[in-house]
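Here is the promised in-class demo. Please do not try to memorize the tokens; focus on the logic of going from shape to residues.
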């Protein structure tokens, strides 16, 4: 007698596998890093080129090494060499002109650290080229304090000699000499200054004689004149 066959088992369905089209993430990251590296290299090259161009556009020019009052002749100690960036708005004297500016006089007050310009210098010996110059030692109270500067017109007034009161009694005005201030020194410990005055050739000897006796006081004329 035959054994009946076992019933067939139903076939199980296989699980579906999702198929993706997204490229591998690792490859995208590698290309991004390469792009960043290339960009950094380009920026570094541009920065280096800019630095080289900036350095090559610098030039050596003349600068003021210390304060110089107007009318004073320049010495080697007054001028130094500085290296600055080229600027079309500035026209400082080149360093090669250093020897040629020595001996010239400042047309204006020069301040330490400033660039030296041709317009700041007088070609000749400065104020009073055609006149005689006399140095007058002025004590405190014999001139306006701190107000005299190169170019000021002044009267060099002769003060009475010690014990001489004749002019004061008879009302005769004191004699005076018209002059122009060439330069003024810094005050010393007593407050006295030396004022260089330009005067007519006929007045130089007279003013020098009175100045040596300490009989000169300065009166500044109005600057509007």
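The designed amino acids, position by position:
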């Amino acid at each position: 007698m035959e054994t009946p066959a076992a019933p067939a088992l139903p076939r199980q369905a296989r699980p579906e596998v999702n198929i993706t089209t997204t490229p591998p993430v690792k490859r995208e990251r590698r290309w991004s890093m390469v792009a960043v590296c290339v960009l950094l290299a380009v920026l570094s090259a541009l920065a280096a080129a800019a630095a080289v161009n900036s350095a090559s556009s610098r030039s050596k020019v003349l600068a003021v090494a210390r304060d110089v009052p107007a009318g004073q002749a320049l010495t080697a100690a007054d001028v130094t060499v500085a290296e600055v960036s080229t600027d079309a708005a500035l026209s400082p004297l080149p360093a090669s002109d250093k020897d040629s500016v020595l001996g010239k006089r400042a047309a204006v007050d020069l301040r330490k650290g400033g660039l030296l310009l041709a317009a700041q210098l007088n070609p000749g010996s400065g104020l009073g080229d055609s006149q005689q110059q006399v140095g007058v030692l002025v004590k405190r109270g014999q001139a306006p304090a701190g107000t005299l500067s190169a170019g000021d017109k002044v009267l060099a007034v002769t003060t009475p000699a010690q014990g001489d009161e004749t002019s004061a009694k008879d009302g005769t005005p004191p004699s005076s000499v018209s002059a122009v201030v060439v330069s003024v020194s810094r005050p010393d410990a007593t407050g006295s200054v030396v004022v260089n005055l330009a005067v007519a050739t006929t007045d130089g000897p007279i003013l020098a004689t009175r100045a040596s006796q300490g009989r000169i006081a300065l009166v500044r004329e109005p600057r509007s004149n």
